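Minutes, project check-in
Item: structure for the 484-residue chain
Input as provided by the requester:
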Amino acid sequence: MIPASWTRTPGPRSDAVYRIGFSEASPWLAPGTLILLWFLGLVARETVSTTMFVVWMGGSLAWMVLRFALMDHFGERGQMVRPVLNSALLGAWILWYWVAMAPVGDKIGQSIILMGLTVWWTASTSLLAGNPLAFGVLSLFMTTGPLLASVTRHNPFSGSSWLMLFMAAAIGLTYRDRRQAFLAAVEADDSVRQLADEFSLVFDSVRDGVMVSADGVVVRLNPPMGSQLRADAEEVVGRRIEDLLGQGEDELLVAGTTRIDVPRADGSTAVLEITGRVNPTGDRIVWSSRDVTDLVAREAELAAMVAHDDLTGLANRRAMFELLGELHRENKPTAVLAVDIDGFKQINDRYGHAAGDEVLRCVAMRLEGLTGGSGLVARLGGDEFVIVLACPKAVAAGHELATDLVESARCPLPLLGGEIRVTLSVGVSTSDGSVAPDVLLQEADLAMYAAKRAGRDGWRMHEVGGSADPLPKRTARFRAATRA
């Protein structure tokens, strides 16, 4: 595993080698080295003179002081030089001590010092694996020290020399394994960094909004998400999901992909299509969103176009049948009024189609004004209109509205700088909720044609089991009866 303190020097990949300084890579390495040197001095004190012991301790402290001074001098600069200098300082001190002071004839003292240094040296190969030059300098000095001491003391093949050679071979093999592991870790780290860079690029480049939350709090979002919310990342990061989106994480996750109204930072409201996915560890949720505000508006416009008549703005045949079907399924009392403009063809022939369209719009306004909010007014086509009433007293309401329609139609329509008079023929059919919509409309249509045959400018009620016979005009007594 690569220590987190390793840093990469800038430059091409061939030169971008991970460098490691002793003090940065492992804070305990320098004090640990001093403690080990001190311990070895104490162990060897019984077999060396006081002078040698003092030299060992003093030299170790001097090495530490000089090392810290040089590291402070270089600071953050010289990532390649610092570990080499550190290794050279330690190696030079050990080399000088062995050549000048070490008790070559004392096998026990030599073995203790060699074993201690070998343990430290082997442990340091993991840290030096990223810098072969530093490892080579340290290995050269520490290996040649005991060998030079043996040669200069006329003891070139002492037991300590052979021990040092075997240990050097073992350390070399250890270093090779550590170096291979280091290079593999560097390659893996490069792959992770590349994958992270690619993920970051994708995260910021996708057109949909993406947001990451942890424990219900937003931790990251991409620019499109900020645009959807009309807010900067600093305004969103740290906020809770339920405060931002109006619903909690559990509600959104259970719903899967859902559309929600989200208040924006500028005071407007956006319609977002939100989907949440939990990562395998369960500590992060990735939210993807798409702004469908314009799409919802277009859908509403299309729905209005599908359900309404272009010329008059009234409901069309489809919307009328949907309402009748709903009332039939709920068994609600219903009254249907079929309305037709008398002599509309003559109006078109005399004044033109533009005037005929204006007549249709004026009649539609009157029908809506008389109906109010108590029913649905629809245009089936041409000059044919239908009014649907749903109320407990549907029969009485149908009668009264039919009478009002016929009477109000006699008032002149202001048109083309003058006036046009029209009359209406109205047919009424009612149901307690058991009659199918198409049958109910057909009965109203038959009653309307009965009104036309009776001389127009009037209304007729469809009678179950009989014909649509003329009914007397409304009187005050009839009005009171229908309103009771």
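Outcome recorded: Confidence is low (pLDDT under 50) at residues 1-29, 465-484.
No further action items on this chain.
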